Structures are given as structure tokens and as C-alpha cells.
Amino acid sequence: MTLIRYVGGPTALIEYGGTRLLTDPTFDAPGDYPIGARKLAKTAGPALTAAEVGAVDAVILSHDHHPDNLDAAGREYALEAPLILSTASARERIGDPVRALANWESYDLGGVRITGVPAQHGPDGSEHLVGEVTGFVLESEGQPTVYVSGDNASLDVVRRIAERFDRIDIAVLFAGGARTPLVGDAYLTLPSEGAAEAARILNAHQVVPLHFEHWEHFTQGPDTLRSAFTQAGLADRLHLLQPGEQVSFP
Fold first, then answer.
1. Buried b (16+ CB within 10 A) or exposed e, 74-109
2. What is the pTM of this model?
């Protein structure tokens, strides 16, 4: 049984193969969050507190350098975890308990194989502006294969992942169509149509969107996700969770 509980923003509790994993911890209240000379505006807090989420076996962190993916309370929570799997850059900035997981490298956690996979947090050529980001694939005997995209805007990246794995059963897609002046009109994460196309490329029969609400820099949300998946003929695959809601898969 795989259980995914949506906490808010990019944060979800994934119970998988006997392990408890938390994606990109964000537990701060709404407000303005500086990022260099700019700021991001958070419009809603999480459905669960860090205490209500409880202990996990690992945090799987797409990146540490943006406050909408790791805020102050989320960082405090993550540093108490026994393990954070993330980028080499996050390892350099945070230190323990971060373990850098390179693309296509795997880590064994209690019978769960967690593989780092590419993510591109913006258009081609923007890596020097947006920084290093990663995604993850979870595999375990008798369990569905789960892809967690992190902040990825590239369908070419999705195609590379589809080529590497025999199957992706569940796709957890960061899908708010994020935009900031940093890269002009380009998307920093998948928009709704891109999320539907990613589901088709992966042939994922279950899709759980994250990071599509609660921040002003998201240009798309629940309504556009429903429309895009309906137009693509994939409406039956989409699981749009309310904050605090969970879904389980056999």
C-alpha cells in the first residue's frame, strides 16, 4: 500500500514500502519571503504542523535554496530527520544529515530504492539562474513505482526518465506553472498541460499534483489541471487532493 497525504505547497507525506518520506518541507505561515533581491508571497499555510506530520525515515528534498521548497520551519524539521536526500549543492550548504544523490544514483532505505533523477527548474539554459534541482523515483518489491518530479519544467527531462524505468505507476508532479521575472515569461515548473503530457509520456496511471497552490507566483491551479487532464483524456488518472487529504494505492 502506498499512501500520499498532501500537507500543502510542495509538501507531502509518502508512506511507501514500510518507510515514511516527506517531500520538500514547508511549514511556515503565509507572508512575504525574500529570495535575493526579490520576494515570494505565500498565501496559505500548511494543513498539518510539523508535529502532526511526525517523524519520518527521510526527507526527499528537490532543492534547498528557494523558500517555497524549504522554509525556516521546514529546515528545522528536516535537520531533525535522520536523513535528507537532495543535491550536491544542498549538501555543501547544509551539511549533515544531507546525502547528495546524483542523477541515476540510488540509495537503499529499508528495502526502498530511492533514485535521484534529473529536474530542470526553468527553460533550457537557465540552470545558472535557478540552481541545482533533483527529482526522485521510489521502487520497492511488490510496490508501485513512484516518480516525484521536484521543480521541473522540462518534458525532455520527463522523456529521459521514462526511458530509464520500465514503468512509472504513480507520478507526483509539481505542477503550478510557476513564473517569476527571473526567467521572463518562461515556466519554472510544469503548467497544467505540461503535467498532463508528462503523465502521458510516463504512462502513469495515477497522478498526484503538488506545488500548484498557496504561492502567488503560480499561474495555474486546480481548475486548469482538471481541464488539461480532461482534454487529454486522462481525467481518471488525476487525484487533486485538498490540503490534509490523503489517497492510497494498492
1. bbebbeebebbbbbebbbeebeebbebbebeeebeb
2. 0.96
